[in-house]
Amino acid sequence: MAQIINPFATLYDRLQLTPEQLETLCKDAQIETLAVFGSALCDDFTP
Q1: Count of other CB atoms within 10 angstroms of residue 29
Q2: Which residues contact residue 37 at a Cβ distance below 8 angstroms, ignoring those fewer than 6 apart?
Q3: 34: Cβ contacts below 8 Å, ≥ 6 apart
Q4: pLDDT, averaged across the chain
């Protein structure tokens, strides 16, 4: 059976934010759509 990986969990880890912190950041900055490039998931990404 294939393992299902949650890409958002990896993203939160890379950004060093919780989902709640990211939500607050977007609300405070009035961000309606957040786009993250695939490079944010690479091993050499640093926030």
Answers
A1: 9
A2: none
A3: 22, 26
A4: 79
What is the DSSP code (8-state) at residue 44? Answer: T
> How does pLDDT run across 27-45, given as a tens digit for each residue?
999 999 988 776 766 667 6
Residue whose C-alpha is closest to residue 9's, from 18, 31, 27: 18
The tally of CA atoms less than 13 A away on the side-chain side of residue 14 is 16
Contacts of 14 (CB under 8 A, 6+ apart): 40, 41, 45, 47
| Alpha helices for 1-47 (secondary structure H) | 7-15, 19-28
Closest CA to 13 of 40, 34, 38: 40
